[in-house]
Design brief:
It is a single chain. The chain has 172 residues and is α/β, with parallel strands linked by helices. The chain is 40% helix and 16% strand. The chain is globular and about 40 Å long. The chain binds flavin mononucleotide. Flavin mononucleotide (FMN) binds next to helix 2 and helix 3.
Amino acid sequence: MKVLVCISGASGASLGLKLYSLIPPSYQRFLVVSESAKVVLQKEENIFLNDDISAPVASGSFGVDITFIVPCSMNTLAKISLGIADNLITRSAQVAIKEKKKLILAPREMPLSQIHLEHMLKLSRIQNVIIAPPIFGYYNKPKTIKDIEMFLIGKWFDLAGIKNDFFKRWGE
Ligand SMILES: Cc1cc2nc3c(=O)[nH]c(=O)nc-3n(C[C@H](O)[C@H](O)[C@H](O)COP(=O)(O)O)c2cc1C
């Protein structure tokens, strides 16, 4: 199975990196980082990554099975909703949609405007597109940011069908 993780320029870009690093070795993994995500990573995490503009994931024939965009900025969300494919992340999203492969979007903004919500509703109506924002639950009693991050990544992996024991499930 091939898994693609895309990081766009919303707050919490490091969450996308953590998700990427936790994908089990049985999966082939690929990473795309937007220009704005680099800025966010520099401001929030002091990390700088190079772009890969000639990646094979831009083609449907490469056969990515699961695409995550974590976090997904409102800019990237809007472009995906409108069918724009002007960079590797938006192109990969269009590929996932046209190939009917799983596309998991984690939009991050607060508050959400009517425009943001309309884009999310439109996309969630498309087969295999899942809107899964970085919203955590209190029911598993997180004590640290790491607890919250593992809960979120565990939920995203569950949606993708990637087995994990990253968080305590309700009733456990
Ligand atoms: C520190 C920082 C935090 C940001 N947080 C968010 C955010 O949470 N959500 C969002 O939609 N945009 C956020 N932005 C704005 C986006 O980076 C900006 O809209 C950018 O054009 C997105 O480009 P991309 O979609 O190509 O990554 C943030 C920008 C900076 C510098």
